[in-house]
Design brief:
Elements (H helix, E strand, L loop, with lengths): L1 H6 L4 H15 L1 H24 L2 H15 L2 H17 L3 H32 L1 H16 L2 H12 L3 H12 L1 H13 L2 H9 L4 H30 L1 H5 L7 H10 L2 H27 L7
Helix pairs in contact: 3-6, 3-9, 4-5, 5-15, 6-7, 6-9, 6-10, 6-12, 8-9, 9-12, 10-12, 11-12, 12-15, 14-15
Length: 286
């Protein structure tokens, strides 16, 4: 059996390498065109977060968390971010860089994922086509696609953002698809019977009733984005992955620990805030 495998070989590695080389040689300008708006959005948001005084940021965070959830979550959110700021010099700046990347990931995830999820809910054929790609995006180890991402987008924050988006986008598509499909048929039929167009039914009935499930997709997008922070630091993304990576290289357990604690703290805050928004949705299922 071993002899058979040595004689008959499928050169998938060669095909992939040749395909990426072809893209780099012939279509890199397309990927650089994709990179530009993402770089502008990421740089602008990161600049805004960095110039905002920490006290002002904490006040705004408190008000937003209270609006999104309740006063307990608001106090918890402020306490976590204040702890991050007090844990180490420069950690606050790393946190703002990571927060900017996560927010942009959420924006990209919503802009791409929600429409694709809606189309998937309306077309079984379309969902059958994209489902294998979603499976690959979620299960392919990050190190596998970091190399082509760097080759196509070059090292930097945007390359890290692209890697984060690839890893965190599928849950938005899947859960938007699921939420739209779970809207009761009789509700949709009643809307149609009263003269609503398909778009009116979608915007005024299906999306509001599916908002709880869609927000769960956004929540998973955030969690997976934060899980990719350390990986993205390997290709120059910066943020909280830097102290973790540096701590690992230098065997400085304390430095890696405060980076990890900061990532966990941010994840807990964003999880509770998005969960609060989802619980206010009209389609919340008890």
């Amino acid at each position: 059996m071993g002899d058979i495998f040595s004689i008959y070989r499928i050169p998938v590695d060669v095909w992939v390498a040749d395909g990426v080389d072809w893209l780099v040689s012939n279509a890199r300008f397309i990927f650089q065109g994709i990179k530009w708006p993402l770089a502008q959005l990421l740089d602008g948001l990161e600049f805004l977060l960095h110039i905002t005084p920490p006290l002002i940021f904490l006040i705004l965070l408190f008000l937003f968390a209270w609006w999104a959830s309740n006063w307990k979550v608001a106090i918890f959110s402020v306490a976590v971010f204040a702890l991050i700021g007090f844990m180490g010099k420069g950690l606050w700046d790393y946190t703002m860089t990571t927060l900017a990347a996560v927010l942009v990931s959420v924006i990209v995830g919503a802009v791409l994922g929600i429409p694709l999820g809606i189309i998937s809910a309306r077309s079984d054929r379309f969902y059958a086509i994209i489902r294998p790609f979603l499976d690959m995006m979620q299960t392919t180890p990050a190190f596998v696609y970091l190399v082509p991402v760097v080759m196509l987008f070059s090292i930097g924050t945007v390359a890290g953002l692209i890697a984060v988006v690839i890893y965190s986008l599928p849950p938005v598509i899947r859960l938007t698809n699921l939420g739209i499909r779970q809207v009761p048929d009789d509700v949709v039929e009643a809307s149609t019977a009263f003269g609503a167009t398909p778009n009116q039914t979608l915007l005024k009935i299906q999306i509001p009733l599916a908002l709880d499930t869609i927000m769960q997709g956004i929540n998973q997008n955030i969690m997976l984005a934060l899980a990719m922070v350390v990986m993205a630091a390997l290709i120059g993304a910066g943020g909280l992955g830097v102290p973790v990576y540096e701590g690992l290289n230098a065997l400085r357990i304390g430095l890696a620990a405060i980076g990890g604690i900061s990532i966990v703290g941010m994840a807990m805050v964003l999880d509770r805030v998005t969960e609060g928004i989802g619980e206010k949705a009209p389609g919340k299922r008890e």
